[in-house]
Amino acid sequence: DYDIYLSVTYFILLELCIILFFFFQAEDGIRDFCLSRGLGDVYKRQHFNEPDTKTNILLQCHFSRIPLIPDFAYDQRIILEHAIRIVQAMVDVISSNGWLKPAILTMQLSQMIVQAQWINDSQLFQLPHFTQELVQRCKNQGIEDLADLMNMEDDDRIKLLQMSEQEIEEVAEACNRYPSVNLEFTVKNGESVESGDVVAISAVLTREGEMSPENVIAPYFPKEKEESWWVVVGDAKSNKLYGIKRVTFNEQSKVEIKFAAPEPGEYELTLYAVCDSYIGCDQGQKLTLKVTPAEEQE
Fold first, then answer.
1. For residues 257 and 195, is the Cβ–Cβ distance under 8 A?
2. End-to-end CA distance of the chain
3. What is the pLDDT of residues 134-182, one digit of tens each?
């Protein structure tokens, strides 16, 4: 199900980017892919000049961090500059239909675009100067994510990274700016309500650490990006999204999500906090909601 939802979400983004691609192709003169001599017929059969194919290739090159020639890098930049707004609009449309899994995957797609990596790639690729070789060396030492790296002894970390002093300082800054957020909540009207009553969940996001957030560290994204979060309440079992809010905050943010209690029954819900810019820092808290039949009024 995860792969299917992710594929559909990516396809929707691709189609929306194509619409923008057509517009900017007319406005700015975006170039067609040039056919290689001697292979023209092969390329024509694959329709490499079609906007959908080109947009798909440019997005996948971004996620895989494949270098491009200047002309295609310019085209890729146009797509990326508008992709985040498209993704945010996709989240709004999907959540208005109450679909939980597609909404979460679309939020992860936002992370992929900002960080220029696939969602299943190592979190360490979000740090400056980290290559495939270095990430593999970290894995061989049991270092899987940023928390593992930060918990190492200084001497062991320096020996592992094999970087200059300046590069190590840049890695340290990126680690310190990587968000560590604590998510707490209360259900204002208790965890037992009648069907049709308004359920009010008050969530508190608290940023740990001393550094206030600055613009996201994302060297492959073509413009400055401010970090923001989606707070979501949903039922993963039924794929139902009950409420969502989008927030930007420094040290702390309080969010209240209200929704109508569903049919009578016991529901295992999850409160999610999903970052739009960094991979691996999302939070989730389980809560049980008991819904009783509504009392009949005389």
1. no
2. 46
3. 999 999 999 999 999 999 999 999 999 999 999 999 999 999 899 999 9
Helices then strands, counting H and E runs in the chain, come out as: 9, 8
Q: Which among 84, 70, 90, 101 is positioned nearest to 2, based on CA atoms?
A: 101
> Which amino acid appears at position 149 of this protein?
L
Q: Are 117 and 278 in contact (CB under 8 A)?
A: no
Q: What does the alpha-carbon distance between residue 108 and residue 139 come to, in Å, rounded to a whole number?
A: 23
| Predicted TM-score (pTM) above 0.90 | no
Cα 125–Cα 127–Cα 129 angle in degrees, nearest 5: 90
Scan for tokens 């340290």, then name that residue: 172
Assign 228 to helix, strand or coil: coil
5 to each of 11, 105, 107, 108, 296, how far by Cα in Å?
10, 7, 12, 12, 41
- Rounded Cα distance between 191 and 296, Å, is 21
How are beta strands 283-292 and 192-194 bridged, if at all? Answer: parallel
> How far apart, in whole angstroms, are the C-alpha atoms of residue 175 and residue 197?
44
| 145's tokens | 């994510």
Tokens 């396809």, residue? 11
State pLDDT tens for residues 198-248: 999 999 999 987 666 778 999 999 999 999 999 999 999 999 999 999 999
pLDDT tens digit sequence for 241-258: 999 999 998 889 999 999
Starting at the earlier edge strand, list the strands of the sheet with 229-235. Answer: 192-194, 283-292, 265-275, 229-235, 240-247
SS3 75: helix
Residues 6+ apart with CB under 8 A from 40: none
Task: Let me know if 178 is exposed, middle or buried by CB neighbors in 10 A (0-12, 13-18, 19+).
Answer: buried
Give dist(CA 119, CA 226) in Å, integer: 20
